[in-house]
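Render this sequence as a predicted structure.
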Amino acid sequence: MGRLDGKIGVITGASSGIGRECMRMFAREGATVFGIARTQANLDETRNLVVAAGGIASVYSADLSDPLQAEAAVNGAIEKYGRIDILLNAAGVGYSLKDTSIGSMNPLDTTPIDKWREVMAINLDSLFYVCRIAIPQMKKQKKGSIVNVASIFGMGGAPDAHTYTATKGAIINLTRSMSVAYIDDGIRSNVVAPGFVKTQMVEIVLDYLFSDEHAQATSPMKRPATTEEVAYGCLYLASDEASYCNGSVLAIDGGSSARA
């Protein structure tokens, strides 16, 4: 018996990283998964991985920073399956964007206005656009679990990437507000806050951060997380095992945020 047997799970950012790993893990635990991301080829690869392992998956290509595309994507899941039991919001950009979008990961005073808007649109607006369509469906069902992926940098300061940290802090507090507003409708809302995870999003800084010189300061465990380790946290909060978790923020960071 799987931990998500019979559930319908919608997962954004499903084409890579944490979103892809959640697609695989949730399907392995019995959920039918519906993945959304921008790049069709990567989505197809995710779906093929799920199906090859015996899972059931569909994918939908959409730019979730566009409200019309986000609405069409979520409605596509509802039309196909009739309900949404789990919504996992993992779509977003991180430090790797600095190479293709100059200034997007800068400190505040050197962040161009258009780069602020770009990162806000991808990381925060997209979550809003998806949730505002999914929540009415969950209210009709009188049940649902929403898991939003933020970051430990939403709980504390950083020397740069200030737009990114602002989006992650906003995700945490928005989720807390959702947890208060919608629990009477049977909807739980929680956050997973990863530290440094071995994905393309931060791979350009991992060698530096986890070098012999810096690893202890980066994380007491002296290594980045795997996507699987983060996905297990998402799985727990998404599942009925977490029935009394609402407004929780689960840091998965090897102890980084425990430092004074």
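Summary. DSSP finds eight helices and seven strands in the chain. Strands lie at 8-12, 32-37, 56-61, 86-89, 144-149, 187-194, 249-252.
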